[in-house]
């Protein structure tokens, strides 16, 4: 029977530590594991490995102290831009205040995280507006729950000539895009959406019907 590396006890046959249900005999360690397991992408097993590494792994004390300091600094310094909603420390963010960005293009995304891959690719030089979510009546997210009024204020405040809707290719993304289209009906602003279809390197034989239909619908001259 394996020994418990934290409590000196033995592991049960189900691979858990300590008491019943795979819980640790140490309440403090159990709280740590449960807290970590609430993070996206971490189940109990992964959370347990992380917790044990922070407590007993090589350089555990240094790693734990570094993590605590980094989390504390992030909580006190990181915020969302009051103008566009992107993740930033200075407010307004550097994208909004940069004279090198194209003020005529505004890219609308659902989440602050969506800004990161576009910025990493480096091809877009316009500015952003983060909705902070997508319309989803089933989940109780209605138009009044999202900052569409601030979006209209943003358009009125600057020389935007094109709005690029960069939302998820989902029912919620489609619903939100259509709502924005209706919201801006009669506005001379050019409204565009990201293209959808067969991805680069994708095999036609394994492409789902919806993606294939979009690819045909938005085909272009060659």
Overview of the molecule:
With 222 residues, this protein is of the alpha/beta class. The chain folds into 2 domains: 58 residues, RecR Domain 1 (Helicase, Ruva Protein, domain 3), CATH 1.10.8; 122 residues, Dna Topoisomerase Vi A Subunit, Chain: A, domain 2. Strands 4-3-5-6 form a 4-stranded parallel β-sheet, with no helix packed on it. The protein starts with 26 loop residues before the first helix and ends in a 5-residue tail after the last helix. Helix content is 38%, strand content 9%. The chain has 8 helices and 6 strands; from the N terminus they run αααββαβαβαβαβα. Helix 5 links the parallel strand 3 and strand 4. The chain is globular, with a radius of gyration of 24 Å. The N terminus is likely disordered. Helix 1 crosses helix 2 and helix 2 crosses helix 3.
């Amino acid at each position: 029977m394996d020994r418990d590396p934290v409590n000196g006890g033995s592991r049960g046959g189900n691979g858990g530590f300590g008491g019943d249900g795979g819980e640790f005999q140490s309440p403090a360690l159990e709280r740590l594991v449960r807290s970590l397991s609430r993070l996206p992408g971490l189940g109990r097993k992964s959370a347990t490995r992380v917790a044990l590494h922070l407590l007993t792994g090589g350089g555990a004390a240094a790693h734990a102290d570094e993590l605590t300091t980094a989390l504390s600094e992030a909580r006190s310094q990181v915020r969302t831009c009051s103008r566009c909603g992107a993740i930033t420390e200075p407010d307004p963010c550097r994208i909004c205040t940069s004279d090198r960005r194209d003020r005529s293009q505004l890219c609308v995304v659902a989440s602050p995280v969506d800004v990161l891959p576009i910025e990493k690719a480096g091809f877009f030089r316009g500015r952003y507006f983060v909705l902070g979510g997508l319309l989803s009546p089933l989940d109780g997210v209605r138009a009044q729950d999202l900052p569409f009024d601030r979006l209209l204020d943003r358009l009125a405040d600057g020389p935007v000539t094109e709005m690029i809707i960069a939302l998820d290719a989902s029912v919620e993304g489609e619903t939100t895009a259509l709502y924005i289209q209706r919201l801006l009906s009669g506005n001379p602003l050019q409204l565009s959406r990201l293209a959808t279809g067969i991805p680069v390197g994708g095999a036609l034989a394994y492409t789902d019907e919806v993606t294939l239909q979009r690819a045909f619908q938005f085909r272009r001259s060659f």
